[in-house]
Amino acid sequence: MSIIVKFTLRNIKEKKLRTFLILLSIILSSALFFASTAISTTVEMMIMEQMRKYIGNADIMIGAGEQSKTGYISPNLLDDYQKGVKYTAGMIWGSGEYKSKGETIQLEIQGIDLEDLDKMNPIILDQQQELSPFKGNKAIIGKKMAEKYNLKPGDSLGINMYGSKKWFTVSAISQPVGPFAEDGQSTYIVVPRETMAGLYGQKGKVHSLYVGLEDPSKQDMRVEELSKAYPMYRVEPTISKAMIKSETQQISAMFLVIVAFVLILSMFIIYTSFKVIMAERLPVIGTFRSIGATKKMTNRVLMIESMIYGILGGILGDVLGISILKLMINQITPSWMTGVDIKAYYTLGQLIMGFSVGLILAVLSSILPIRRVAKIPIRDIVLNSIEKKVKKKRWKAILGILFLTIAIAGPMIVPESMALAVDVICMFLLVPAVVLLVPYITNGFLKAFKAIYERIFGNEGILAAQNLRDNKNSLNNIILLGMSISVLLMITILSQSIVNDMLDYFKDNKYDISFWSWPMDRSVESRLLSVDGVSDTYGKYEKYGKHEVVGKNAEIRCILGVNKAKTLDYMALDIEGESEKLIEELDEGRNIIVTNIFKDDHGIKKGDYLKLKTERGTLDYKIIGFIESNRFDGKYALIGERYLKSDMGAKQYSDILIKTNKDPEEVVRSIQEKFKNRYPWVRSMKQMLEENMESNSKILGIFKGFGIMSLVICIFGVFNNLTISFIDRKRSLAIMRSVGMNKKQTVKMIFIEAFIGGLIGGLTGIIIGLLLLMNVEKVIEALGGSMKDFIQIPWTSLAAAMAGGVIITIAASVGPALRSSKFNIIDAIKYE
């Protein structure tokens, strides 16, 4: 036993390239799996930490309702409601400008009592001077602001607020915790609540009332109770954990789909690597078995070897996975948070899962080659009389076609309640379908193009085609190529479709600048019209939120109030039929236009009525048409502007769209200067496009990175399979050389095999990639999204996939081709 173990360990050490290949496959698979599962935890914690900066440990926020005239409420609103309430804290907020050393910074100002701040969002004071009682013009600033502008307790702080300068005294400096925590964007100061309320002329009032609960797990129940008890107010959770989890899980799910394919590729590679190990060690295994080693003993040693690979790969995979996770976080972190220390969050369970994936992958992938060798009689091993009887198994073709049919048809006919599970299963059924059908696809391709490659390549082409039909390693290469190219093709097409859709959106709209401030009313629009370079404006009304469609188990997340005189002059709305006539109809009554996605999802038609829950109760809206749009995953609708105001309570513009007769960038600067005391959000179309492209390119870059890693694994796998093929065919190549084939012809034949195999692999990748896109579309729909009429398939991507398959196989064939031209014919014929 000890001799066998020593021999195995020596082989692991000596066969460095193969050991590297197996470990690389396991490490990448384990690392990508760990990073994909941990990314949702990290993003979830990032969002919650960012929100906790503003709201501390509060669980519920109460604000003024839509009908409020002032937007303020009483801080004593919940004095009569103490059920499960730990504390209430009233806050009034504002903003201002601080100028120092020629620099102007925007300040976010929280007006809150110090006792309430201590309950809700505790701070740690570094320095203080006459802080108590916290009244009048006192202010608390953060340590970073104090150090940057050389401020200390007792110094005066002049802040420009709404057109005039207000003076405060620095009474304390806080450590970077709570509202003073660094986020790379906002600078906060805290002042007494009544001081801020006085500046607004609203003494005794607050903007928001924050509620901390005795039992935070009852958040949803308390929100429901308070909403019923105070129907005139807006009651909502400070952080919707369920919503955050849902959003982050969608990100994680998409990564895991790609990782699943990477795992399958890795299994192929480890499986073929162990086939090489078994082929090389077969004579030695026969020797050990002939001098007393049992099947169990040799099997156990080989399984221990696979476990060593798994343990090492799993540990190193977790280490690499943490680095990949940090890289992913850096990619998805907004540019304004650059410089802020962002932590990677992961659990012990996720580390164990990542390690387990590596171990299980190694063991499962090696079992079949080990068991096959164990079944070979000692006599056959020693005499090298191992014959492989190849039988055509028609059931494989039938099963492959069945899997392919289910993978294509399943998502189209499955009930909505089972859609997600069935769609994912159908996606992965493509893998066994490809494995079973590739030999038949290869034969079909070779028969179809037989005359062409005979004429172009001659006899070497005929031999190459025959080798492709009969060589299982070549077929494995086609499978590996097909799967890896399909994943990369899917990611590339999805990425390009997102970019093209974004470009089309910005290209089709007919305005130059988007503006938002608060409040947003006609007086703001009038001021904008007075800015030099502004030729026209459109105050747009949109209502966001969950607008329930009664009786349909559906919701509309955004409703646009259409202005018959202005909307079509500013917005590109792909309304089916006579758009201008339908826009006129929207203004004539409670009529609605919904998306084609919404129509297909809920089986509705023109003339039907939708019962919408509104501020005025449940009202009937008649469907008069449909719009082609993916906005809000198809949960988007148009109604007349006056009905959005009267029924939905829309009182303020959602934004103002601006046309210019000068350079938009110059007009943006003029608007910012005119409205500087209101700190507006102003962007030109060019700026919005650049910002959207930047944010999307980062997340798409991660997906492409995963796809490229799968291709890297595939390339190593192809090299490995060609090594196996060379070992298996060494004697047959020598026999061909002995009957007249020269070195040049041998090399030519190997390269022709690579070329044809690459073409078939690329073609297979294109077919699988297109089927994957179809299935991904259905998975997205099952998750509540939509990609209908969204995917655009450029022929350049398909051509690149085909060329990529050829280049990879030809490059991988260089080594075996050179070795085949150099080996000794006699030694090769005697090779065992």
How would you describe the overall organization of this protein?
The radius of gyration is 34 Å and the shape is elongated. The two termini are 25 Å apart. The protein is built from 25 helices and 19 strands. The chain has 832 residues and is α+β, with helices and mostly antiparallel strands. The longest helix is centred in the C-terminal third of the chain and has 54 residues, at 685-738. It has a six-stranded mixed barrel with strand order 2-3-8-5-7-6. Strands 12-13-17-14-16-15 form a six-stranded mixed barrel, surrounded by four helices. Strand 12 (534-550) and strand 13 (554-562) form a beta hairpin. 38% of the residues are buried.
Tally of helical segments: 25
Radius of gyration (CA) equals 34 Å
What is the structural class?
A: alpha+beta
Basic shape: elongated
Taking the alpha carbons of the first and last residues, their distance comes to 25 Å
Taking pLDDT < 50 over at least 5 consecutive residues as the criterion, the unreliable ranges are none
The average pLDDT is: 82
